[in-house]
Design brief:
Blueprint: H1 3-15, H2 42-52, H3 55-62, H4 69-76, E1 81-83, E2 98-100, E3 103-105, E4 109-111, H5 124-134, E5 139-142, H6 150-154, E6 161-165, H7 171-183, E7 189-192, H8 201-208, H9 243-248, E8 256-261, H10 264-272, E9 277-280, H11 294-305, E10 311-313, H12 320-328, E11 333-336, H13 338-369, E12 383-385
Length: about 400
């Protein structure tokens, strides 16, 4: 045998080795990843994001708290709401635009604040903003934990931006952050009040497998023990008081929303403190496990608010019919968290544009099937609820 034949024989031997399958990830499908134009639903984007991303990068936005019961319940709740079909309606496309805080929006759809887009795409939140701009100038809320600073994200596109805040105990730090965001063009401030101290078991397992487990609060915490905190749980988000909204009002010149409201009582307290919008959310099932789904509590919160301020909603939204159900139960607008992350992690700005356009088209179709001529015509007579 000459040298070439020897190398061929060696290559054949190695290729036939039973050890090779051990080098593949048995948890992933290794078939061809579809192209952008082949993706037809929001669920398709999750499949592609899972195929393209390292496991820890995918798991960080995917996980829920503890056993992920609430994460699953957020999706299951849509099965408990039926839509009433009214076939005959006025001809022509339904009117999908709304006015929110004095601004016109082509659709009642907003990109929720989510952290770390830069782990999914090199352009991070800037890519998400460009995609939102291309999809009927969709409003985007920039996370307090964004990969890129707010002013840099704002410079990437022209669609409206809001800013999210995790309150800090130093009011001076809150002031600096919020004033800088407002100077850069933030049209509203979303204060998150529900994310206290969570354990993400999926991240803990990733760490055991050698991953970084981003954002995890370990249940085996090693923080210093203090007199008021004997369990060594991080105190970064355990001090919130309603008075915080009164404290930041003097230097916030745009609408303020409270994100993480799940009870009528808290909604009424928001009104007492002059909050401009109530945002129904359980942090995508990432805060308290075994809490209710957001869709279940939405109607009673809408009743408590009584139309005094807009009510926003998120939690498990994946289809146009999901959006219609939330609107029928009283939400003024619906926010998307994981869906844009799958999109930016799959195809960058183009992916975000496409997934938003898919959901916009699905909403129009659902409105046509149920005889709705405008967002204003949607009401509870459209939804039959069967919550357990």
């Amino acid at each position: 045998m000459d040298r070439r034949d020897c190398l061929k024989a060696l290559a054949s031997f190695l290729a036939g080795s039973p050890l090779l399958p051990a080098q593949q990830d048995p948890f992933r499908d290794h078939s061809r990843v579809p192209g952008l134009k082949e993706l037809l639903t929001a669920f398709d984007f999750e499949t592609v994001a899972y195929a393209k991303q390292p496991r820890t990068a995918y798991d960080y936005p995917a996980h829920g708290a503890d056993s992920e019961f609430t994460l699953r319940r957020n999706r299951q709740a849509y099965d408990w709401v039926e839509l009433v079909s009214k076939r005959i309606a006025a001809p022509g496309a339904p009117q999908t635009s709304i006015e929110l805080f004095g601004a016109r929006m082509a659709f009642p759809i907003i990109v929720s604040p989510t952290a770390g887009h830069g782990t999914l795409n090199t352009d991070g939140e800037m890519a998400t903003h460009k995609g939102a701009q291309a999809a009927s100038s969709t409003t985007m809320v920039v996370s307090n934990n964004s990969t890129f600073p707010f002013d840099k994200v704002a410079a990437a596109a022209t669609s409206p931006l809001w800013v999210q805040l995790y309150p800090k105990q130093s009011i001076d730090l809150d002031r600096q952050y919020l004033e800088a965001a407002q100077t850069a063009g933030a049209k509203a401030v979303v204060v998150t009040v529900d994310q206290q101290a969570s354990v993400y078991e999926r991240d803990l397992h990733d760490r055991n497998l050698g991953g970084r487990g981003a954002g995890t609060v370990s249940r085996f915490a090693t923080a210093p023990r203090t007199g008021g905190n004997p369990y060594r749980v991080s105190e970064a988000r355990l001090w919130y008081e309603w008075k915080f909204f009164d404290d930041i009002r003097p230097f916030v010149k745009v609408p303020i929303l409270a994100k993480g409201i799940l009870t009528p009582e808290d909604a009424r307290i928001c009104l007492d403190h002059g909050v401009d919008g109530v945002y129904v959310s359980n942090h995508g099932g990432r805060s308290l496990d075994y809490g209710p789904s957001t869709l279940e509590v939405l109607p009673e919160i809408v009743d408590a608010v009584g139309g005094k301020v807009p009510v926003l909603f998120d939690g498990g939204v994946r289809r146009g019919t999901d959006i219609l159900k939330a609107l029928a139960l009283g939400a003024n607008a619906v926010c998307l968290g994981r869906v844009p992350l799958w999109a930016v992690g799959s195809f960058g700005a183009a992916g975000v544009q496409r997934v938003l356009e898919i959901l916009q088209a699905e909403l129009v179709q659902a409105m046509r099937f149920t005889g709705q001529t405008s967002i204003a015509s949607i009401n509870r007579s459209l939804a039959l609820t069967n919550f357990p």
